[in-house]
Amino acid sequence: MEYKRSILITGGAGFIGSHVVRRFVKAYPEYRIINLDKLTYAGNLDNLRDIEKAPNYRFFKADICDFETVYDLMRQERVDGVIHLAAESHVDRSIKDPFTFARTNVLGTLSLLQAARLCWEERKYEGCFFYHISTDEVYGALEMTRPEGDKDGRGPYGDLLFREDTAYHPHSPYSASKASSDHFVRAFHDTYGMPTVVTNCSNNYGPYQFPEKLIPLFINNIRNRKPLPVYGKGENVRDWLYVEDHAAAIDLIFHQGAAGETYNIGGFNEWKNIDLIRLMIATVDRLLGRPEGADLDLITFVTDRAGHDLRYAIDPSKLRDTLGWKPSVTFEQGLERTVRWYLDNKAWLDAVTSGAYAGYYEEMYGNR
Ligand code: NAD
Ligand code: TYD
Predict the structure, then answer these.
(1) Exposed/middle/buried for 53, CB within 10 Å: 0-12, 13-18, 19+?
(2) Rounded to an integer, what distance in angstroms lies between the CA atom of residue 54 and that of residue 66?
(3) If you measure from the C-alpha of residue 12 to the centroid of ligand 1, how many angstroms do you get, rounded to a whole number?
(4) Model-level pTM?
(5) Strand pairing of 31-37 and 57-61?
């Protein structure tokens, strides 16, 4: 079959990438979707079982740092659009091993950009729209000027939000590597005129997230009645977005975003960690039929993360006002859906928490 477009999605076996791949494979049978992923500890083809046999889908195992392989694939497949999600994504790992983050996130992005640029030039400057997925963590941390929140004790917890023109001020090795990759993408636009777009999104949650990040880690621990390691006092604030709403924004921006632009993605949904953790405990306990408050004693305050950013909060009004995007679920709906998914997918959770990951957990948190 002659496909209308050939789109390369990197990191498609990971958390957000798997939702993006699934969405594109199903919504655009006229597109060929190529998922390129190295399958690190975070990449898992089980995340895509339901679409792996679709005729318009192809998986290709490779490292984005391997320029020749990536370039050959892009030429062979006549790729005319790239959605780049492949990355090392966990802050705690970046504190232990920053080199891997510089390699994949910076050099890997550069290798992909260079391959896309060569293809674009060979095709007389047609296609090869390069969409780079990034994080709000590049902007650094915001202050808490309203620590009590609004009248219901919810966010916003400060007067400032991250906007597209907020200066970059990354603190962790993870955010520093993502900031660097964002700059390379913009440099390719400004230097070569390549059509690129960058989006910076807030914290995602939902099905298929590797249980080292707060929400799936804690759901799994509550399920197993294991301690919940809360960094510091649990006062840090994160702005949470349901992963399918992020995937919907990516779809919209890939098709309608303007070259050279940056869009922030978020749902005005700030939560203090400790409030979110109490809500997770209440939700898991209710769905498992445990008495109210039964697992509150799992909360264990531990040494704070080094350089722990106090508050992230996105102003997504540019995306809302220019392209009409808004989230489709409230946080309560999204969290309930997420908790149910992890409780219903015990086999997936058990598989990804065995082996290498089990060793990592003990190394990070001891045998708690
Ligand atoms: P993830 O860790 O779940 O998945 C990353 C994927 O990239 C995995 O499938 C992994 O195998 C693959 N990968 C890693 N190194 C690779 C390499 N060298 N070559 C090829 N593939 C490689 O990450 P995620 O949470 O889905 O995040 C995806 C993207 O979105 C990242 O770029 C991240 O910075 C960004 N982001 C994440 C969040 C979030 O809350 N998770 C928020 C905003 C932006
Ligand atoms: P995380 O999911 O790692 O995302 P990020 O650091 O990229 O925002 O962490 C979310 C918040 O939860 C962050 O403030 C750190 C905190 N946290 C804990 O308190 N305990 C944990 O075990 C983890 C993983 C995170």
Answers:
(1) exposed
(2) 27
(3) 8
(4) 0.97
(5) parallel
Task: Provide the CATH number for the domain around residue 70.
Answer: 3.40.50.720
137 is annotated as an active-site residue: yes
**Is 174 an active-site residue?**
yes
Q: Specify the number of domains making up the chain.
A: 1
What is the average pLDDT value for the chain, to the nearest integer? Answer: 95
Q: Which residues pair with 37 in a beta bridge?
A: 61
Ligand 2 pocket by C-beta < 6 Å: which residues? Answer: 91, 203, 213-214, 217, 229-231, 236, 238, 273, 305
* pLDDT above 60 for 367: no
Q: Which of 37, 137, 245, 315 is catalytic?
A: 137
Q: Is residue 172 part of a domain?
A: yes
The reply to whether 26 falls in a domain is yes
Give the confidence band of 358 by pLDDT, cuts at 50, 70, 90.
low
Nearest to 203 by CA among 267, 143, 278, 251: 267
Q: If you measure from the C-alpha of residue 273 to the centroid of ligand 2, how many angstroms do you get, rounded to a whole number?
A: 8
Please list, residue by residue across 255-292, b when 16 or more beta carbons sit within 10 angstroms of its beta carbon and e when fewer do: eebeeebbbbbbbbbbbbbbbbbebbbbbbbebeeeee
Average confidence (pLDDT) over 289-312: 97
Ligand sitting nearest the alpha carbon of 131: 1
For the CA of 63, the nearest atom of ligand 1 = 19
pLDDT in tens, 203-243: 999 999 999 999 999 999 999 999 999 999 999 999 999 99
